[in-house]
């Protein structure tokens, strides 16, 4: 397992399959050994000879293949609670039947972990949302993206763990706020319909 190339392996799987992703914590995927005692020794050693034994993030030097090269975005931070803001480059097919337009907000759907574009995304990646949130006395932005792989498969990343909260009110308000959102539901329908239409 330590010798697997996770990004290359996923790229092989993408070749004919659409890949919907709602993974804000993609940067926390483990790579390498699953034995804690070996991982502890390896992660404390900076020797390139031991890189294949390290449990780390794909973006780190030991692997050198950032998550956004596959997904379009990668993990930025957590403890965020804000709104998703539709970007000017969101495609018409994605917003169809939503009545959403540039600058409109999907309230309460940005958080609790968020992703952003870091500059390694495939060239044809489209930013669907670019959403501000307060951070350390300033403002940061999270992103939602979609791109088409060379095979024609599409990769969609919400960039927010709370996207799913807009799809139903399961466990609300006991465990989380109720933020059911017709726009998020329709965008999800549109993405799934586009995935099903690829190759037809």
How would you characterize the overall build of this protein?
By secondary structure, the chain is α+β, with helices and mostly antiparallel strands. The protein has 2 domains: 6-18 and 29-66, no CATH class; 69-197, no CATH class. 20% of the residues lie in helices and 26% in strands. The protein contains 5 helices and 6 strands; from the N terminus they run αβααβαββββα. The strands form 2 sheets. It has a 4-stranded mixed β-sheet, covered by helices on one side. Strands 2-3 form a two-stranded antiparallel ribbon. It starts with 5 loop residues before the first helix and ends with a helix. The model is unreliable at 1-15 and 21-45 (pLDDT under 50).
Describe this structure in a few short sentences.
The protein contains 5 helices and 6 strands. By secondary structure, it is an alpha+beta fold.
Number of strands: 6
Number of domains: 2
Strand % is: 25-35%
Radius of gyration: 18 Å
What's the tally of helices?
5
Low-confidence stretches: 1-15, 21-45
Keyphrases for this structure?
200 residues; alpha+beta; two-stranded antiparallel ribbon
Write the layout of secondary structure elements.
Elements lengths: L5 H9 L4 E3 L14 H8 L24 H4 L2 E12 L6 H4 L9 E12 L9 E10 L2 E11 L5 E4 L24 H16 L3
Parallel strand pairs: 1-6
Antiparallel strand pairs: 2-3, 4-5, 5-6
């Amino acid at each position: 397992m330590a010798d697997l190339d996770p990004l290359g392996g996923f790229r092989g799987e993408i070749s004919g399959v659409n890949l919907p992703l709602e993974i804000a914590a993609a940067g926390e995927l483990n790579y390498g050994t699953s034995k804690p005692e070996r991982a502890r020794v390896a992660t404390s050693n900076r020797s390139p000879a031991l890189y294949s034994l390290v449990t780390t993030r794909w973006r780190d030097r030991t692997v050198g293949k950032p998550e956004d090269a596959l997904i379009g975005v990668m993990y930025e931070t957590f403890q965020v609670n804000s709104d998703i803001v539709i970007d000017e480059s969101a495609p018409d097919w994605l917003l169809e039947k939503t009545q959403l337009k540039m600058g409109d907000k999907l309230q309460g759907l940005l958080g609790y972990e968020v992703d952003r574009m870091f500059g390694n995304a495939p060239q044809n990646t489209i930013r669907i949302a670019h959403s501000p949130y307060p951070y350390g006395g300033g403002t940061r932005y999270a992103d939602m993206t979609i791109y088409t792989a060379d095979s024609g498969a599409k990769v969609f990343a919400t960039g927010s763990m709370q996207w799913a909260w807009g799809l139903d009110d399961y466990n609300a308000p006991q465990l989380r706020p109720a933020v059911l959102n017709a726009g998020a539901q329709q965008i999800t329908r549109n993405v799934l319909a586009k995935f099903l239409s690829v190759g037809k």
